Amino acid sequence: MKRWMKLIGGIVLLAVGLLWGAQGLNLVPGTPMSGQTVFLVLGIVLVLIGAWPLASLRTGSAKVHVGLTKPRDGFLPIAGTPYVYGRCRACRDRRAVERYHSRQDIRQAEIARS
Question: Residue 46 and residue 18: Cα distance in Å, rounded?
Answer without folding.
Answer: 8
